[in-house]
User: What shape does this take?
Amino acid sequence: MKVLRTPGEMHDLREWFRDQPETVGLVPTMGYLHEGHNSLLKAAREENGFVVMSLFVNPTQFKAGEDLSTYPRDEERDLVIAESSGVDFIYAPAPDDIYPSGFATKVEVEGLTEVLCGSETSRGPGHFAGVTTIVAKLLNAVDPDVAYFGQKDAQQATVIRRMAEDLEFRTRIVILPTVRERDGLAMSSRNAYLSPESRERATAIWSSLLETESVFAEQGLDAALDAGRRHLELAGITPEYFEARYPGTLDPADGNGTDPVLVAVAANVDGTRLIDNILIEPSSTHRRTK
Ligand code: PAF
Assistant: This one.
């Protein structure tokens, strides 16, 4: 496995890739790898001749007061995990090389980024402008055939798909299911912040989504959302949002049709901000897809 530290090295590799018959899979990460990342790496390994993993804690997607400075980092460990997952190339640039002085461009997707995590009472639309700007730069620097993201960040997945389509990137965007701990907690690098008590409390996030799904089957969406929110509040968690949206457009869902409904939640658990979601199929609410 080779580690590339500069955009220049990555561009040289991209040119070399262009002469190879094999496909290139990219797994963008901010490091502190967990099983969720591993599932993306595994798919990338199985489906491509070359696997590139980017490792970059992207400062522009954090707003002032968020956890940029404390975001968990352990590059040594990440490199060991990446190598054992079959990664061929790590792209780990320095922030000043990605955003050199004079950098002035923002890639912004309108509409989809103004709700849920993008609303002013949440991380704000600037969060997604940071995400789409770095992902556009990575797609440009690596020019992969396929790029892999996780469904845990459902809104991010929708926004990235839109951006890749609008800007005509040739890369196919693949979204893979959320990987969970045995008790249902979605894998996240931020889980490392949780104390044992908070970790226990955090399991209510996934169980609130399951509760929503089961009430939806019998009583409809409004009652289901109320039940899910109540479930969280009983665990002492006040959600930042707990909403039902259609996954492709992120428009508010009424759940009356046959289209799948995304129920997404963000909640601060004792100082740690966690997100999760469930995709509910109204036609067969017993057949859940993650
Ligand atoms: O999902 C993440 O880890 C990040 O948002 C991403 C896609 C690597 C961009 O920094």
About this structure: The domain at 2-176 is CATH 3.40.50.620 (Rossmann fold). The chain is about 35% helix and 20% strand. Residues 237 and 269 are 6 Å apart (CA to CA).
